[in-house]
Amino acid sequence: MRMVDLSFIRKMWTRIQEDEVPALAAQLAYFLLLSLFPLLIFLFSFISYLPLTDQDFISFIGSYFPGETAAFIESNLTDVMGKDFTLLSFGAVATLWTASKGIDAVVRSFNKAYRVKETRSYLKERMMSLVATIAMIFVFILALVLPVFGKHIGEITFSHFGLKSEFLEVWNTLRWLISFSVLFLVFTNLYWIGPNKKLTCISVVPGALFSTVGWVTASWLFSFYVENYGQYAALYGKIAGVIILLLWLYLTAYIIILGGEVNAYFSEKQEDC
């Protein structure tokens, strides 16, 4: 088993060098930065149509982003909250095109991992990116709505049996499971429909699982480092929030691309058999 593990690590290291993963991660981080705020604004514009409050959305952001990064994003979104949402809603629809550029960068990295060229037409590729972006939006909206209704239903049900305190303990665990499941679903869809290669949903599970666990772990470690050891505020001053966000997006991009490389590795291994 150890030889297999070492062989896998060596193969992955070779793929990282050949496919220039660090450079691709830097490119992807740039497009993710361009896509992040349009995507969040689009999500935020939906709140007025859902039984949610602004605080629900802010809490949602805090559960997916490291502490310093979440604070930076929240402060910028607060400025948006006071604007005219009639105009913002129309503008948010237009930002879908910008948000989907991040998906385009992901697709290019996946094609490189699978050693395939993009043969889909420009229109088909853009439509696929838009569909993937919209699918991600609905998944995140579902992640917003489920905890709100789930908590209320659970409190009512458990209160009837006098077990409200026990439910709250269970709910704290369920919140993490919901967040993990949402991330896994998003990564699975990306790895499935992204590459210009016919894949089964099951075949992309290893990469999706790797990225989900890796992203949650890396984000927690990064947040711990920034809060306890990072001196970005002293070094960069007012733009420290931007630097931290870029570093976290680069880390995210690296993990997403590595997940694609993991899937491509197992796909090639299966074809050789």
Description of the structure:
The relative contact order is 0.14. The protein has one domain (2-138, 175-272). 84% of the residues lie in helices and 0% in strands. The chain has helices at 2-18, 21-45, 54-64, 67-81, 85-113, 122-160, 164-193, 205-228, 232-236, 240-272. The radius of gyration is 20 Å and the shape is globular. Helix 2 (21-45) packs antiparallel against helix 5 (85-113), helix 3 runs antiparallel to helix 4 (67-81) and helix 4 crosses helix 10. The chain is mainly alpha-helical. It contains ten helices and no strands.
Beta-strand percentage range: under 5%
Report the biggest beta sheet as strand number plus sense, adding barrel if it closes.
Answer: none
Number of domains: 1
Using only C-alpha atoms, the radius of gyration works out to: 20 Å
SS-derived structural category? mainly alpha
Mean pLDDT: 76
Poorly predicted spans: none
| Beta-strand segment tally | 0
Q: Count the DSSP helices.
A: 10
Percent helix among the residues? Answer: over 70%
Query: Could you state the order of secondary-structure elements as H and E?
Result: HHHHHHHHHH
Shape: globular
Helix/strand layout:
Blueprint: H1 2-18, H2 21-45, H3 54-64, H4 67-81, H5 85-113, H6 122-160, H7 164-193, H8 205-228, H9 232-236, H10 240-272
